[in-house]
Amino acid sequence: MVHLSRARCTISGQTKKPPSPDTAFSSKLASCSSPAIVNSAVRSDDERPFRLRPSVFCKRQLKSLAILAALATFQARSGMRSSNVYAEIDILPSIGFVENPSIVPNGSVTLGYCPRVPHQGTYSNIKGATLSSQHSESSAFALPHDPFTRIVIVGAGPSGLSAAYFLKQRGYRDVLVLEKQGRVGGLCLTVTEDYKSFDLGANYVTPAYHETLRLAKEVGAKLYPERPGTVIEFPDDSMAKPVFREFWDAVVRDVSPIRFLAACLKYVRLRFRLGAVIDPPGLQNIHKFPELCVPFATWLQRNGLECLSPLFEIPITVMGYGYLHEIATPYALKYMSLATFVPLCLKAFPPTSFIPWPKRFVRGFQRLWEVVAWDLNVRTDVNIHRIERSEQGVRVRFTHEQQKLNEVNTHEDELEFDYLLLTCPLTGNVLSTFMTLSSEEETLFGRIERYNYCLTSFLIPGIGSERPIACTIPLAPIGTPWAITKQMADSDFVQFYSRVDPAWSEAQIETELLVRVHESVRRLGGDIQKDEWHTFDQWPYFEHVSAEDMASGFYERLEALQGKQCTYYLGGVMNFELVESVIQYSRSLVERFFPMVDATQCRPHDRPPVSAPSRTAASRRAHWPNVSAQRK
């Protein structure tokens, strides 16, 4: 525990001088007419709180005190193991004012949750950011919790597995993950060719992947640095050979290098200032910042950064997140954090292209999640038929395959749980297939959109490449491969990233993509010997809403649903469709709603584990409330 007094600051037994406030601030504190005691607490991985007392403040000093508490917190935490910081100021009700809408009735003001990235934000330059409460309405624990609280998680992707992992860390022993596919990993998919691993979904990590790298360290997943890529330009003449360029030459071809570097520095400054708004998991309060609720291309233009558009098109548009005029600014800013943007810029600049970031997993991204799942209760090949919810709990009816040697049987089961965590696609057409949605759920989930994105591969012996990835800049027409990768120089495994034209029917997709891939390979001097895919994966990718929906309070309404009917929502749409972002949100949600419990308690006789055989149908009906009657 850390105590900050007027005389000194004691940190884990070590005496240090406290951060001294400026003279003006001290005089303001002395002149307060309505003093009140203030406590500031910081929670982290090791649950060691930071206490700031005593102090006084009045309404006009709240902002200055918040800044002081944040700075003291970051300074005190700088020598500790964890860099997760969640700061709160508890204001006694004696103050008698709640004029700022971001101050909740119980007096709790959230400074922000900066996931393992200290100093990546400033509170003084963002309007309202110092008083922003990311989850003020739903941070209370709805029902009693104990180690045997039954929790079901639908979906064994990064979001679901990380949620189960964090619940296990907090002492919960009855957590069951149900997965429709026969594997875990979700959009992380890895195959092995020529004794090497290739990622067909999520592929690389940057220094911003703090939670992912921590998991990788715990399970022993090794990484290797990505080699510099290149840019490929296909001339309009179909018989002309493509032109290869360095990333740097491609992004500065229409602007002077000095102006480009100045724009990069300006983006760094703006992104740093926006850290307190963008970095916390979730987007509940994003509608309070209308200047951010616009398309990313508009935001770049308003800030004089349009010359960076070719640079941002590579990680955003090429990787399936839409054109810059489609993606909302908060999504792009979450993706392009400083810990991602700076290494990518350095990698593109030839003199600094030797830096070891980004990195890839030696065994593949999916294998990381397979190892994580080994220590969790996960059932694959599950087909959920019905989920019924009430304020008393959740009932799930499903079938799953059971195999004994060469005999495969389908087994039907029905289990009861206290809580439901949905990490599957949160679109209405998916959820409505197995559960009844409320009118608010139907409205919100009906606003979620996805792009059709394809990753295909062939074994092509004729293509030689010194660089592992080639992006097409300027962007080719939609449907044409936007990225062509040959990750290993001694392998014939070549991958093609293409966004599907929304005008194509399902029957046209494979035919149209095959024609365009053949044309690209021909112009590169290769030849596809077998006229069939080696792998073909069509991802309904990037769950998102429009900038207009953000401005209208979509995320505030979505977060208000958390906990209703014992249901919680996770996944890409809640934060951003990125492995690190979904892990951060999973951690945040688990810490908000599921307190630490004592995992050493003995199991009650009437609480069998969720993996045990279910009750008889008659017993289930006797113990379950009449959900249908309640609904009527």
Describe the 3D structure.
The chain is an alpha+beta fold and 632 residues long. The protein is 28% helix and 22% strand. It contains 20 helices and 27 strands. Strand 18 and strand 19 form a beta hairpin. The two termini are 52 Å apart. 41% of the residues are buried. The N terminus and C terminus are likely disordered.
Please describe the biggest sheet, giving its number of strands, its sense, and whether it closes into a barrel: 7 strands, mixed
Low-confidence stretches: 1-142, 612-632
Mean pLDDT: 78
Count the DSSP helices: 20
Radius of gyration: 26 Å
Kindly report how far apart the N and C termini lie: 52 Å
> Helical content, roughly?
25-40%
Global structural class: alpha+beta
Beta content: 15-25%
Number of E strands: 27
**Shape category:** globular
Strand order of the largest sheet: 15-14-23-24-25-22-26
Topology:
Elements: E1 2-4, E2 9-11, E3 14-16, H1 23-30, E4 38-43, E5 50-52, H2 62-77, E6 85-91, E7 108-114, E8 151-154, H3 158-169, E9 175-178, E10 190-193, E11 196-199, E12 204-205, H4 210-219, E13 223-225, E14 230-233, E15 243-245, H5 247-251, H6 257-273, H7 275-278, H8 296-302, H9 309-313, H10 329-335, H11 338-348, E16 359-361, H12 365-374, E17 378-379, E18 382-390, E19 393-404, E20 407-417, E21 419-422, H13 428-431, H14 439-445, E22 449-459, E23 469-472, E24 483-485, E25 493-499, H15 506-523, E26 535-544, H16 547-551, H17 554-560, E27 567-569, H18 579-593, H19 617-623, H20 627-631
Parallel strand pairs: 1-5, 8-9, 8-21, 9-17, 14-23, 21-27
Antiparallel strand pairs: 1-2, 2-3, 4-6, 6-7, 10-11, 12-16, 13-16, 14-15, 18-19, 19-20, 22-25, 22-26, 23-24, 24-25
Helix pairs in contact: 3-18, 6-11
